[in-house]
Amino acid sequence: MDLPKFILGDNTDFPDAIFIVHTEFPRFIINLENDELEWLEEFDENDQKELQEEAENCIRLATEFYDREISRYDE
Question: Which pLDDT tens digit goes with each residue over 58-68?
């Protein structure tokens, strides 16, 4: 099955949350309400610096994806 790189999700148990699921490595879920990030990969201690840098990039990409998707609803 081919999956898109990002998937937009919501859940009625979290009415204010907007979730973005990143399906490629490194896989993660981010809640755009508070930028809380949950990695779906295992990392070792040596990966921590790279992981921090990647987290910033992932948040930016997820936010850009969300903005693009929302703009398409307005068209």
Answer: 889 999 999 99
